[in-house]
Write a structure and sequence with these properties.
Strand order of the largest sheet: 2-1-9-8-10-11-12-13-14
Shape: globular
CATH class of the largest domain: Alpha Beta
Largest sheet: 9 strands, mixed
CATH superfamily of the largest domain: ANL, N-terminal domain
Organism: Salix suchowensis
Helix content: 25-40%
Distance between the termini: 72 Å
InterPro entries: AMP-bd_C, AMP-bd_C_sf, AMP-binding_CS, AMP-dep_synth/lig_dom, ANL_N_sf
Pfam family, one: AMP-binding_C
Number of helices: 16
CATH topology of the largest domain: Rossmann fold
Family: Belongs to the ATP-dependent AMP-binding enzyme family.
Keywords: ATP-binding, Fatty acid metabolism, Ligase, Lipid metabolism, Nucleotide-binding
Radius of gyration: 23 Å
Oligomer: single chain
Length: 520
């Protein structure tokens, strides 16, 4: 159209860097980061990040270089989310629970030029202490903003529920938009107080590292996530918001009386990572937490959907409300489209809450691609949508509900069994703390549900009791025929590592050759 001019006056590449720069002005004297007795203001955090960017550039970090970080939720980890992009580099946050061999593989794959590590147990040549590094930085450093908003800002490796993590590339544009969406779906008004329970290394803290800065909030950091620390930090800092996987919520509702403390006010909680059992949501609300259910993947910058609440649902029973909250919902404002499709025909499934299909995403908050894996990127985007690999149904109101990972669905005698549905029933048993369902080989049925269960402290239940409980609440073909009592292996973000449990169930052999129940 005639008369338009695209120039620096009306077009600037989107980047979360601008969130920090604005907060350093608007919220300059407000606390930005609190960690024990350590506190910084937004003015100080901005200055520290500029110094960090300057120091990195002085060390030879060039635009596009990867800087790796291996650290828990401490102030330095937060600062890296701004300082590294301000140097024009790409931040690669690594899972602190990876063993040395996996860290070595990921460092090599990412080609990281520099690594920032928390608490090395031994001295190494060439190591520079973080605060000493900041002292070398200059405040007059010219921040290296992206030339193209599609330029990479971070590299996130998938969280390891499968055995082969992939490097997911985030852009400045996607991070900017998903940060806004995260603030909106968490109902973060100006200056929230956010407690860090989600690891910052997981999807850059579900993009809330940047979202909290956009709102001039306070980041309450904690190295370890325990129920004692959660309740103490909420009381001490008057926390208004937090996030956590369902396992964190489960920890909270099962905290001892000596650990629990009265909440200073309503605490908004975003949960995701795995479908939360309605029983857990119900108990959280009883304690005074307001839970919002979100769903997404590393490839969607973390949260991609939200179970937006409709006022008429307030008239339902608490149990009815919890069941609705357990849905994955609809796309957030930063995402263009969300659908349940037949993966072969790419046609939308009927909105009948029964027909299963694959959850698919399309929009600006979907990854750029997988690092050095063009074939996997093309497969993920086949058909013009991002294929999640998750199976779900669509309700008549348009809200989606996850049923399983495509690789976790159990096919027994030709019937599809959702492990999520069986797990939800087990979670409602008063003695069960955690539960996971996988398929166990069966000579007759092909496979049957195998339950791995951890009981609450001081509670007793045997395999026969749990099987009968499931039989009373589920169709018989969905009832577990095997129950194994043990600790559940998890990723650092609280997801159960089902591939580990699948191998264990496989090693147990066909259930038709042995007993119907097992206790280990």
């Amino acid at each position: 159209m005639e008369g338009m001019v695209k120039c620096s006056a009306n077009y600037v590449p989107l980047t979360p860097i601008s969130f920090l720069e604005r907060s350093a002005i608007v919220y300059r004297d407000r606390v930005s980061v609190a960690y024990g007795d350590i506190k910084y203001t937004w003015k100080e955090t901005h200055e520290r990040c500029v110094r960090l960017a300057s120091a990195l550039a002085h060390l030879g970090i060039s635009p596009g270089d990867v800087v790796a970080a291996l650290a828990p939720n401490i102030p330095a980890m937060y600062e890296l989310h701004f300082g590294v992009p301000m140097a024009g580099a790409v931040l690669c946050t690594l899972n602190v629970r990876h063993d040395s061999s996996m860290v070595s593989v990921l460092l090599k794959h990412s080609e990281a030029k520099l690594s920032v590590v928390s608490r090395l147990p031994f001295p190494l040549p060439g190591i520079l202490e973080y605060e000493s590094l900041l002292e070398k930085g200059k405040l007059d450093f010219e921040v290296r903003r992206p030339k193209d908003e599609w330029d990479p800002i971070s590299l996130n490796y998938t969280s390891g529920t499968t055995s082969s993590p992939k490097g997911v590339i985030y852009s400045h544009r996607g991070a900017y938009l998903n940060s806004f969406a995260a603030a909106l779906l968490n109902d973060m008004s100006s200056m929230p107080v956010y407690l860090w329970c989600v690891p910052m290394f997981h999807c850059n803290g579900w993009c809330l590292t940047w979202a909290v800065a956009a709102q001039g909030g306070t980041n309450v950091c904690q190295r370890n996530v325990t129920t004692k620390d959660i309740f103490e930090n909420i009381a001490r800092h008057k926390v208004t918001h937090m996030s956590g996987a369902p396992t964190v919520l489960n920890m909270i509702i099962n905290a001892s009386a000596s650990e629990k403390r009265p909440l200073p006010g309503k605490v908004a909680v975003m949960t995701g990572g795995a479908p939360p059992p309605s029983h857990v949501l119900f108990k959280m609300e009883e304690l005074g937490f307001h839970v919002t259910h979100s769903y997404g993947l590393t490839e969607t910058y973390g949260p991609g959907t939200v179970c937006s609440w409709n006022p008429e649902w307030a008239f339902l029973t608490p149990e009815g409300q919890a069941k609705i909250k357990a849905r994955q919902g609809v796309q957030h404002l930063g995402l263009e489209e969300l659908d349940i499709k037949d993966p072969a025909t790419m046609k939308s499934v009927p909105a009948d809450a029964k027909t299963m299909g694959e959850v698919m995403f399309r929009g600006n908050t979907v990854m750029n691609g997988y690092l050095k894996n063009l074939e996997a990127t093309k497969d993920a985007f086949n058909g013009g949508w991002f294929r999640s690999g998750d199976l779900g149904v669509k309700h008549p109101d348009g809200y989606i509900e996850l049923k399983d990972r495509s690789k976790d669905i159990i096919i027994s005698g030709g019937e599809n069994i959702s492990s999520i549905e069986v797990e939800s029933v087990l979670f409602s048993h008063p003695a069960v703390l955690e539960a996971a369902i996988v398929g166990r080989p069966d000579d007759f049925w092909g496979e049957t549900p195998c339950a791995f269960v951890k009981l609450k402290d001081g509670c007793n239940a045997n395999a026969e009791e749990l099987i009968k409980f499931c039989r009373d609440h589920l169709p018989h073909y969905m009832t577990p025929r095997t129950v194994v009592f043990q600790e559940l292996p998890k990723t650092s973000t609280g997801k159960v590592q089902k591939y580990v449990l699948k191998e264990k169930a496989k090693a147990m052999g066909s259930i038709s050759k042995g007993n119907a129940t097992s206790k280990l």
